[in-house]
Amino acid sequence: MLRTLLRRRKEPLTISDVTVVDRPGLRRAVAATAVGNTMEWFDFGVYAYVAVTLGKVFFPSDSAATQVVSTFATFAVAFLVRPLGGLVFGPLGDRIGRRRVLSTTMIMMAIGTFAVGLLPGYDSIGIAAPLLLLACRVVQGFSTGGEYAGATTYIAEFAPDRRRGFLGSWLDFGTFVGYSLGSGVVTVLTAALGEQGMVDWGWRVPFLIAGPLGLIGLYMRLRLEETPAFQQEAERAAEAVGAGKDGVDPVEEARQSGKGRLKEIFTRHWQAVLICMGLVLLYNVTNYMVTSYLPTYMTSTLGQNPTTAQVLVLGTMILVALTITVVGRSSDRWGRRPMFMAGSVALIALAIPALLLIQAGGFLMPAVGCVILGLLLVIFAGTSAATLPALFPTRLRYGALSIAFNISVSLFGGTTPLVASWLVATTGDKLVPAYYLMGAGLVGLVSTIFLHETAGKPLRGSGPMVETVEEAHRLVARSRTRAGRRARDVWIRLRHPWAAQRYRDHDGDGGR
Q1: CB 217, CB 35: distance < 8 Å
Q2: Would you call 19 helix, strand, or coil by DSSP?
Q3: How far apart are CA 286 and CA 291, in angstroms?
Q4: Rounded Cα–Cα distance for residues 394 and 464 (Å)
């Protein structure tokens, strides 16, 4: 009887506890979320590469540095509203579903980006021009507040546990493909039209391309199904609410409300929120330093040829896109913590050497510096999409991740180009970007120390996810074997403590 009771303390898995992934649905999920990220980062790539041109169109000034700072200030304002978007879309995604919210954010992003290409310049309508540009950026920022967290949540909840890192890395593959496409279009237009042609009308073309891209992304997202994890959580919540008087339990109803979810996030999961913010800071400071600030740094601060700078950063983004899924697969094999730990230490050690190489002039040395920064960036990019959603339980995942992610990005990521350009202009120290990256590496290192390993494990609040029925049966069989061995070991320790060590010596598994 005692052994039976011990066995029941931790019941083994049954086949109904294991979810077998729908492979066609998984492919649609990865493709649709990656296209959305491609759309978002197409805009970022364009904006970073035409920052100097936009400064001339929307912010007339005798100082080129003032124009650049004004343009990046508009860029940063969009990030300041991202937490508001996260507060709205995140909890909403936990209540009504991931799919519907992701379709809404797709529409808003496409409209905001397309509208920028239609705006008149300062010479036409005066101060109204930069205000309209600001309004478009606010729409983009608000929608983006629910985009990345929702996309990572969606892929994480659809992916089998053993391949979550690899499949999640395709989301950020879309990120860098979008950036590469946006920056590539601007590079070609700049070479073909020249500086004056870009100021006159060429800058509009990349933004107008966002319209068709948005329609494609919306079509793909409308064909998606809800994630298995959300469906299971919705069923459990419905059963809990239905258990009360008149079909409503007041305690559970309050817990399921948006206000109740926010309170639970900051009271019961504050440690996960802080870890998430630290890892997001690490990733996004590196990301925006390379993708958004580096082209302007190389041209305006270092005085390098604009085409050379654009080609070098574009080549870096292509390198990241080509290697990111390799990093994602490696995180499935080696773990998320070792990847973040190694990347943080390397960023602290290599930030200054990389910036010194970029300052060396010519083509070869700056190219090596860009490659170093790109390889550091891909470590964080290829690991984040699988790591961040695993920090939170299913019922709070979208909301908690949206809030933590967007607060960190708004305070530290999106402001990176503005702060870096201002500090360089104020101090005259061209190594300021390196110091900034080293600080991000230190924050990431501390956050990684407190990060629990999640590679190959089920998401919090969800059962195991596998790819085939055969794998599900093997998992159940192993679970029953482990449960039996745990019960046996406890039984031996309780009834025959003097024989426990001898039993472990003869059993290579040791009850593990």
Answers
A1: yes
A2: strand
A3: 9
A4: 13
